[in-house]
């Protein structure tokens, strides 16, 4: 169901023009203002499974990141098999802000079970202090895929999922991702202009957008009023142990411009800006996980962001 209060396209156009004007106006130099955003970190740099959670929390605490994000299934595994998720979070003192959750969006026969799974993860996230579901469709074979052939299922399923997340008291933020049904610039614009944004907000990963061939600066600006959570990631390309991504400041994403835009949302976003760097365990990177996270933190500190002592 499309939001009927205001045309999605008109809303984005009007609000995006306003945010761009405020960003570019000479009287407001956001890059020179005292930064108020606290910066968190996702945990995938350290790995993708429940075994990697504690290692990531130890490093995040040492580096002063304010919060963390993990997968819904990791929360569930710690809750049901490893002595409790709340206990491990309390042990390391880094609070959770969000959970990354994926469900199928193309097969209607799977929707009922996928919805149950998502609601289960929502309850666990909320009970442990999280505020945002960073929502992403599950991966597909991109060869031969045409979103126009699936638009009915795409919109119906994601509207249903987003409403369920909202009904659980959390914010649902869509995360376009390479290798999923929402990768290209055209797909991002189609989805965000047609979903019911009363329920589905935006949670861009700027590195993923760059890798997918989109312009992350333009997309963040165009959908800025809907941004509720952000994965701040750089992209350099090549085989570097990070699937082509890079520690912040070491790639080609215009992170500073994106951060300046996001500063206009700092009192409005439910979620946070999260440092993220994907890992590729098949190729050993030039530096350790801790050092990569430190390089990224140091880059943000030079831009005026503060971290815990």
Structural summary, described in words:
The structure is a single chain. This protein has 11 helices and 10 strands. By secondary structure, the protein is an alpha/beta fold. It has a single domain (38-302), classed as Alpha-Beta Barrel (TIM Barrel). The strands form 2 sheets. An 8-stranded parallel sheet has the order 6-5-4-3-2-1-10-7. It has a two-stranded antiparallel sheet with strand order 8-9. Helix 5 (111-127) packs parallel to helix 6 (151-167). The model is unreliable at 1-6 and 13-32 (pLDDT under 50).
List the topology elements.
Blueprint: H1 8-24, E1 39-42, H2 53-63, E2 68-71, H3 72-81, H4 85-92, E3 96-103, H5 111-127, E4 132-137, H6 151-167, E5 171-174, H7 185-194, E6 200-202, H8 206-211, H9 216-222, E7 230-232, E8 234-235, E9 245-246, H10 255-262, E10 273-275, H11 289-302
Parallel strand pairs: 1-2, 1-10, 2-3, 3-4, 4-5, 5-6, 7-10
Antiparallel strand pairs: 8-9
Give the key terms:
40% helix, globular, 309 residues, disordered N terminus, 11 helices, alpha/beta, two-stranded antiparallel sheet
Summarize the structure.
This protein is of the alpha/beta class and 309 residues long. It contains eleven helices and ten strands.
- The separation of the N and C termini measures 46 Å
What gyration radius follows from the Cα positions, in whole Å? 18 Å
CATH topology: TIM Barrel
Backbone structural class: alpha/beta
Strand order of the largest sheet: 6-5-4-3-2-1-10-7
- Helices and strands, in order, run as HEHEHHEHEHEHEHHEEEHEH
Let me know the number of strands.
Answer: 10
Number of contiguous helices: 11
